Amino acid sequence: MNDKDMYEYEQFVRAREELSKANDAVTQLLHTDPKFVINALRNEHRTFQQDFTRLCAEWLRTCAQDDYGTDARNEASHEVGKIATAAHDAAHDGCGIGLPRI
Length: 102
Fold this sequence. Notes:
Helices cover 74% and strands 0% of the residues. By secondary structure, it is mainly alpha-helical. The longest helix is centred in the N-terminal third of the chain and has 30 residues, at 3-32. The two termini are 33 Å apart.
């Protein structure tokens, strides 16, 4: 691994650790008050909202895949992913609709 790759990997590891901590806090909020999180997102920068929506859409598409491992804890995510992906594709003639970063 060259120096640039090592630097990028270290940056990724640090960001992953920070994301993990933030995820714990957001997960706790979602369990206790999901509307708080939704309302907070409504007031975020529009680009952040678009980035978050893109992440959610890609996550649902991933959940919909046949090779997405499921058990009782996430079977509903798999089903919702399949429904959302099928509805999106049907509404846009299967061509998809981008969520650009502007």
